[in-house]
C-alpha cells in the first residue's frame, strides 16, 4: 500500500515537472522587470507573463510590449514596445513621434516626458524599431538599431506581481 502510494506520487510529480517544463519552453514564461525603461507601464520589480506562441499565428503589431534577446548581447533579455515596423520612417521632433510623417498618439507615455529629437530613420524590412516608454532612461533601437524578428521571445501579456497592479499589459 505504501509502495503504491510512493510510486503514484513520484509518477505524478514527474508528469507535473515535464508539463511545467514544456509550458515554460513553448507557451508561457515569467519574466522579472529589472529597470525603469518601461515606466509607467512596467516598473522595476514587476513580474510578467510572456506568451511565446502569439507570433506563431500573426505578425507583431505597433504598440505591443515584447520580450526579446538584446541584439548586442543575446544572453540578456530586454522588454520594450514595438514602435516601428519594417518600411516605416520615424522621427522625434518637438517632443512628438512621427511615423511616415504622421504623429503617433502614445497614451502609454508619461505626460511629463520630454524627448530629444531623433531621426529620421527608416526601419529595414523584416525588423522592428523598439523603444522604452521611459524614453530618457531607455537603451533602445535609437542606440543599437533595429531588432531582427528572430530575436523575439514573446509578447508581454499579464503583470502578475505586485498583486495591486495585476492585469493585462497595454
Q: How would a textbook summarize the main sheet?
A: 8 strands, antiparallel
Q: What does the radius of gyration come to? A: 19 Å
Q: On the 0-100 scale, what is the average pLDDT?
A: 95
**Helix-strand category:** alpha+beta
Shape: elongated
EC number: 3.4.21.89
Keywords: Hydrolase, Membrane, Protease, Transmembrane, Transmembrane helix
Catalytic activity: Cleavage of hydrophobic, N-terminal signal or leader sequences from secreted and periplasmic proteins
Family: Belongs to the peptidase S26 family.
Question: In a few lines, what is going on in this structure?
Answer:
With 170 residues, the protein is α+β, with helices and mostly antiparallel strands. The protein is built from three helices and twelve strands.
Molecular structure report:
The chain is an alpha+beta fold and 170 residues long. The protein is 20% helix and 35% strand. The strands form two sheets. Strands 1, 2, 3, 4, 9, 10, 11 and 12 form an eight-stranded antiparallel beta sheet that branches. Strands 7-6-5-8 form a four-stranded antiparallel beta sheet, with no helix packed on it. A hairpin with a 5-residue loop joins strand 11 and strand 12. The longest helix is centred in the first third of the chain and has 26 residues. The radius of gyration is 19 Å and the shape is elongated.
Amino acid at each position: 500500500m505504501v509502495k503504491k502510494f510512493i510510486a503514484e506520487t513520484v509518477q505524478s510529480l514527474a508528469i507535473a515537472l515535464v508539463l511545467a517544463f514544456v509550458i515554460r519552453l513553448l507557451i508561457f514564461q515569467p519574466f522579472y522587470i529589472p529597470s525603469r525603461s518601461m515606466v509607467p507601464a512596467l516598473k522595476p520589480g514587476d513580474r510578467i507573463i510572456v506568451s511565446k506562441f502569439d507570433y506563431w499565428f500573426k505578425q507583431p503589431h505597433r504598440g505591443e510590449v515584447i520580450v526579446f534577446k538584446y541584439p548586442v548581447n543575446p544572453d540578456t533579455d530586454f522588454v520594450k514596445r514595438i514602435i516601428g515596423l519594417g518600411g516605416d520612417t520615424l522621427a522625434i521632433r518637438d517632443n512628438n513621434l512621427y511615423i511616415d510623417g504622421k504623429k503617433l498618439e502614445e497614451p502609454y507615455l508619461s505626460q511629463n516626458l520630454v524627448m530629444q529629437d531623433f531621426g529620421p530613420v527608416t526601419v529595414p524590412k523584416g525588423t522592428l524599431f523598439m523603444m522604452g516608454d521611459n524614453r530618457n532612461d531607455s537603451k533602445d533601437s535609437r542606440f543599437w538599431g533595429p531588432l531582427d524578428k528572430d530575436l523575439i521571445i514573446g509578447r508581454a501579456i499579464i503583470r502578475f506581481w505586485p498583486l495591486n497592479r495585476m492585469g493585462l499589459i497595454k
